[in-house]
# Entry
Amino acid sequence: MAVRELIRLENVCKFYQMGDTRVEALKDFSMTIHENDYMAIFGPSGSGKSTLLHMMGLLDIPSSGSIFVDEVDVSKMPENRLARIRGKKIGFIFQVFNLVPSLTALENVALPMMIYDVPKYEREKHAEELLISLDMGNRISHVPGELSGGQRQRVAIARSLANNPEVILADEPTGNLDSKTGGEVVDIFNQFHKEGKTLVVVTHDPDIARNAEEIIRIKDGRLVEHEVSKEHLLRVGRTITGFQKVNNDIGTKRKVK
# Structure
């Protein structure tokens, strides 16, 4: 049985005009996210990783090329329709936690559900369950200023799950954390993958990237290498033309010219 395709980018280009200079952030980029993928977007600062995540998350539109969600082209949809798709299908985790300072952990996690008129009791119950699942049950009444960096990131992770999204997109989620706390976040992501969640992590840290079963390496806005584990190929049920076996951990690798 074929694994469902969730998001697909086809020949996506993105450029920005900075005065008289045209900056090309993404160049002819194509990729697909399947259900239960655990993917790392890996590359140096300024390589286009965050721009790529914004495209996948429908936070920006391409200058050319197409973005498909559930095999429907959304590239030219109006913002109000894109916002609806984002809210229902995609959860975001950022390097900067983006928590509302005056709200408790519980209220921050419940906030995305208010957009969809989920009753207050249900919002709070679901938010509490998410926080408990991330070992934050004893911090639900604390505001962000009373939490450590790692605890704030756990609240942000719980918030990303509030509307039961099909895809979780994380942009440098350990960038503001020490190595121990960052490792705990990676453990959470590994557990998410075991539970069947679809996860895409943007990172410049090779220790984080190697946990993924699929690694897309990006440089100067181009996809330069795509590594896929054998487990991923078996699960997705497809072969990828031009790949070569490299080792037992990463099953195939393709360099993109």
